[in-house]
Amino acid sequence: MAKLSFRDLDDSEIHDKRVLIRVDFNVPLSNDAVPRILDDTRIRETIPTLEYVLRRKAKVILCSHLGRPKGKIVPALSLRPVVDRLRELLDHLLGPQENVGFSPDCVGEIAIELVSQLGSGQTLLLENLRFHPEEEANDPRFAQQLAALCDVYINDAFGSAHRAHASTEGVTHFVSKSAAGLLLESELNHLGKALNVPDKPFVAILGGAKVSDKIGVIESLIEKADALLIGGGMAYTFLRAQGHSTGKSLVEEDKIGVARAALEQAKAKGIRFLMPVDHMLADSFDADAQPEPFEGNGPFPEGKMALDIGPKTIELFANEITSARTVLWNGPMGVFEFPEFSRGTNAIAKAVADNAEATTIVGGGDSVAAIQQSGFANHITHISTGGGASLEFMEGKILPGVEALTEKS
Ligand code: AMP
After folding, report:
1. For residues 161 and 386, is the Cβ–Cβ distance under 8 A?
2. Which of 13, 84, 167, 345 could form a disulfide with 332 if both were Cys (CB 3.0 to 4.6 A apart)?
3. Average pLDDT over residues 127-137
4. How far are the Cα atoms of 102, 144, 166, 175 from residue 137, in angstroms, in the given order?
5. Which residues make up the CATH 3.40.50.1260 domain(s) of the chain?
6. Which residue among the candidates 67, 71, 216, 388 is catalytic per the annotation?
7. Mean pLDDT, residues 199-214 taken together
8. Rounded distance, CA 285 to CA 338, Å?
9. Whole-angstrom Cα distance, residue 50 to residue 233?
10. CA distances from 213 to 172, 180, 206, 260 (A)
């Protein structure tokens, strides 16, 4: 594979050049009349790349999507609120004459005009790409319009790299230079190493609601990991595949066969495929439900559902995690949004964070939120910014946004 890094670009290719960077500023916003950014992680994650190009006095043009406006202008999904936060985060790099500007459209006359006024070391954020239906349709004319704004294109939006959109894939056909930004590069390096040349033992923990969302990842990890730990709602489809009756717990009836096949695949491969051995049950799917411990996988009491793993499972999983040298975690162990059922997820977060000798990687929106809530985020080697993208990467799928850069370099 060709090398993917914008550090391969020499300074002369960046200095004073118009550099278009596809970032992922898809941040959660409040519903206030003047929306506030509720979590700025995605903006902060791009700062190393922005520092790199701004220190080299590029003319920086940033583009991103925000939410799902479906090709229409939706004022509540404007990227304008991001400008102020970006200004604060880049303050140390901006001289008295330098600022972060905003273009109310990502293409067309206004964008062309504002880009032409950009000085070296200045930054311009373009309005939400998805206000144009051509973005998601990967329309070549739209991609060409984006490309015309720049001399060099950099993709730093790992979270969107699994989509072949105009700003992630199409644009690369119309620029002479394209490269991966530092965040994208770091994501690919960390995930790529864990999957292809992991330090052993390699333990993967998978949780979350559904088998259907993660079966591709499970099948792929059975081939690579030494142990797979399954928790969360998806565990109950697997337990049913083993013949247990799981009461009202979440089960995808049409995926029991797929789960059984995965269990057989794991057995044939000789890896440890661990499932919960005890549970926290509830009468209903409710934040106020009282957790009731239940040992074993015998039939659950009438009408009960499992919403978290129990203490024995925590111990079993934590032992595996402690002796691992590579840990990959995607998906919560229970309904961690309900405090009473968040103990399993938090305990796993702590076990992962406590293993200082392992390379630890956490991906997927919910497990990242859980690790942040638990206060151990700074102990993790790599927190992936891309939910869907990291799942597709782990499945072994080619990410169109990455593929496009490879062909180009
Ligand atoms: P995912 O997006 O697939 O990672 O799933 C995350 C969701 O799975 C979270 O909203 C959890 O509340 C949910 N979840 C985890 N464990 C369970 C469970 N035992 N029963 C129902 N939902 C669960």
Report:
1. yes
2. 345
3. 98
4. 24, 13, 7, 19
5. 9-180, 190-395
6. 388
7. 94
8. 9
9. 39
10. 30, 28, 11, 16
Most ligand 1 atoms within 8 A of CB, residue of 212, 250, 255 to mutate: 250
Collect all residues with Cβ–Cβ distance below 8 Å to 201 and sequence separation of at least 6.
226, 227, 323, 324, 325, 326
What angle (nearest 5°) sits at the alpha carbon of residue 401, between those of residues 102 and 85?
30
Could you please state the CATH topology (level 3) that the domain comprising 9-180 is classified under. Rossmann fold (3.40.50)
Catalytic one of 42, 163, 177, 255: 42
Q: Which residue has the tokens 């995926």?
A: 255
**Angle formed by the axes of helices 387-394 and 182-196, to 10°?**
40
Architecture of domain 190-395: 3-Layer(aba) Sandwich (3.40)
pLDDT (0 to 100) of residue 2:
55
What would the pLDDT profile of 309-365 be if each residue is shown by its tens digit?
999 999 999 999 999 999 999 999 999 999 999 999 999 999 999 999 999 999 877
